[in-house]
Amino acid sequence: MIKKIIVSFGLLFSVASVAQEGTASPYSYYGIGDVRFKGTAENRAMGGLGILNDSIHINLQNPAAYSDLKLTTFSVGGSHSTTNFRTSTSAADATRTTVDYLAFAFPAGKLGFGAGLIPYSSVGYKIRSISADQNVPSRQYTGEGGLNKVYFGAGYKITKNFSLGADANYNFGNVETKNLYSVQDVVLGTRELNTSDLSGFNVNLGLIYSAKINKKYDFVASMTYSPEGKIKSVNERKIATVLILADQDEIVDVEKTIDVANTELKLPSKLSFGAGFGQKSKWFVGGEVTMQKSSDFGNRFDDITNVSYEDAKRFSLGGYFTPDYKSYSSYFKKITYRAGLKYENTGLIVANTAIKDYGVTMGLGLPVGGPFSSLNLGFEYGRRGTTGANLVKEIYGNVFLSLSLSDRWFVKRKYE
C-alpha cells in the first residue's frame, strides 16, 4: 500500500513542482530568488532546527542522520502562505500554495541512503505603478521561475556515537523577468524580457555526535558544511515595442535580441552547527547557528544595481514534547508538540538596508496508520524587510503540512 501512495505522490509532485509559483516577494528579483526550502515540516515547526537524528523521520539538512534510520521512509511536504506587503504609503496581500519537497530514504546496516527533489528557490512578483503624467512612464514588473534541486545522499555510522554523511546536488531551473514601460496616450510601450537558464552542482557534508548522559538523557551535537558551488546562468535579453491591451496582454510590434553576457553565480559556502539535550521520543530542546558566505554572491545580469550582499546568519531555537508515544488509552498523549523561534539576517542589502527575517513557529505530529507514520502540521508567523528607505515589509503566515510514511522494506522472507 505504501508503495502505491509513493507513486501517486511522485506523479503529483512532478507536475506541481514545475507549475507552481513559490513566492510573491519583490525581493525574489535578486540573485536566484527567494530560498524557499527551510527543512522538513517537522524541522520548520521547531524554528528550522535541523540537528536531530531520528529513526523514522528524514532530516534533509544533515545527511549524517540517514545512518540512524531504522525503517524505509517516504516524506512529502507542502505549504500555504499568506503575505501582507506594506510600504510607507500602501499595502497589498498575496497567497501561494506550493509543494516543498519529495524525499525517500532507507537503512542498510550502518549505512543509510536518501534521494529526492526539492524546489529550492523561487522568483515570483507582480508590481505595477500607474502614472497619468506624460512625463512619468507607467511601469509593470513581473518575474517567475526558480531553482530546483535533485539530490542523492548517504550517511554512515562510524562508531556508536559518530555519524557522517554527504549529499550530492544537481541544481537546475529557469527564471524569466519582464519590465513594461508605457506613457499615457502613447499607443506603443516598451518591453524588456530577460531569461536565464540555470544549472550546476554542489555538495553538503554532515557530522552528528550523539551520546547518553546518566543512561537517561540524550545529547546531540551537529555540524554541516556546504562548500561553495557554481551555478551557470545562460542569459538572453529581448527589447520590443508592444501594444498593451486592457487585460495586460501584449502584442509585439518590433522585437530585437540584445547581446548580454552569460554569468556564473556562486552558491555561497555555508556552515551550520548546533546542539541539544533531551530524552529520546519524549522531549528535546536545542539551538543551531548557520553562517553563509553570501557576500560572494552575485546577480544574473551585470547591470542590476541598488543591491549588494553581506554574509548571512541564522539562529534557530526549538524543540518537541511527546507525552507518551506508546499510550494505548489516549491518542492525544501520542501527539508530538513542537515549537521554535528563528532570526535571520538574509545577507541581502537593498538601498543600503539589510533585509532581516524574524519568526515564531509551532506544530503537531499526528500519528496515522500505526506508530511509525505521521501527519505533521505546522504554522509559522513572522516578518521580513522594512518600510524604511522606500522598501517593502512582508508580514507572513505559513501553514505547512507533511506526510511521513515509514515501514520495513527489503526483508528477506523465511517462507514462500
Main sheet properties? 14 strands, antiparallel, barrel
CATH architecture title: Beta Barrel
Task: Classify the fold: give the CATH topology.
Answer: Porin
Report the end-to-end length measured between terminal Cα atoms.
20 Å
Overall geometric form: elongated
What is the count of distinct domains?
Answer: 1
Uncertain spans, ≥5 residues at pLDDT below 50?
A: 1-19
Summarize the structure.
This protein is mainly beta. The protein is built from two helices and 19 strands.
Kindly describe this structure.
The protein has 416 residues and is mainly beta. It has a single domain (2-365, 375-407), classed as Porin, CATH 2.40.160.60. It has two helices and 19 strands. The protein has a 14-stranded antiparallel β-barrel. The chain is elongated and about 80 Å long. It starts with a helix and ends in a 9-residue tail after the last strand.
Topology overview:
Elements: H1 2-19, E1 34-35, H2 41-44, E2 72-86, E3 91-108, E4 111-129, E5 138-157, E6 162-182, E7 188-213, E8 217-226, E9 229-244, E10 250-258, E11 263-267, E12 270-279, E13 283-292, E14 307-309, E15 312-321, E16 336-350, E17 353-367, E18 374-385, E19 393-407
